[in-house]
Amino acid sequence: MDPILEVRNLHVVYRSPRGYVRAVDGVSMTVLDGEVLGIVGESGSGKTTLALTILRILPSNAKIVSGSILFRGSDLVSMDENALRDYRWKRISMVPQAALNALNPTMKILDHVLETAQAHGIRDRKYVIERISELLQMLRLEPERVLRSYPHELSGGMKQRVLIALALFLDPELIILDEPTTALDVLTQRFILDLLKDLHRKTGKTMIFITHDIAIIADVADRVGVMYAGKMVEIGDVYTIFRDPKHPYTKALIKSIPSLVGSVEDMKPIPGFPPDLINPPPGCRFHPRCPYAMDVCRSREPPAVELRPGHVVWCWLYAKR
Ligand code: ATP
Ligand code: SF4
To answer: Which of 53, 305, 307, 309 has the most CB atoms less than 10 A away?
Structure first.
């Protein structure tokens, strides 16, 4: 598969009263055409910032310091607003985190859809209704009922599916889903995950699936990137990462999930806390929590080591010193 998106040494900071938050700090990754890439990491590891940077919809206190994001070869970082308009939502779309609150409570779903279409120059009401109905049906919703409802008349799972349909409306090549099931109960979560898998099978759409729950990644993704404190620490295909994780943080993350280790008794929470990204520890950011930390880890950042094609780990245990 060819790359659709290549993120190269990306650095993004937020200005805050205490200083600069280094939210994404030297991240590199490739997304292949037609795959589901999972991005996993604890809260605050920079996953949402990475997604907002790809779409160039960061808040005003954020700054892309350096790096590039090549979408089919064109750099989104250096692109001006005019050129970006052809990419955002049309070629790359996103279901944002906390999406359930994203719908205006005073507008019927049909009006949301018409407004979205109009914002992209589509004014043919008949076409809009046909297109959204087809998508809602694919997501197992009854179009007529849903389109004439207000958001409060729909359940959480229904609203989430409406937002997925809206993100698919312009037929983007890449869709970023930021914690699409987190706010839902377990049964609805399962249902939405199955729908997303089905959607991927039917459309072959490239997806970036962001979650803090590594168990979900095992279920939906082809490859997975593990983030820790603004850094990518390991990336590879799901089978390899779950069968033979290399980075101590990935190993710890897998051991912290009861459904993956077998029982709650065998579960081992990761001791300590993620670092403050205004003043992160020198060297490897995981070193204060890492049982294998060596002297070099406390002073020098680990380089990327490609263990086998497509499996990359950023850890001194595997690097030449
Ligand atoms: P979560 O799953 O909790 O959303 P995340 O992995 O998506 O976490 P981000 O939301 O990208 O992480 O946050 C990365 C870091 O940037 C955190 O330290 C967070 O506090 C900080 N941050 C995020 N948004 C802002 C902002 N608007 N201003 C200042 N700091 C921010
Ligand atoms: Fe642990 Fe060192 Fe590897 Fe960091 S670089 S994860 S501290 S062994």
So the answer is: 53
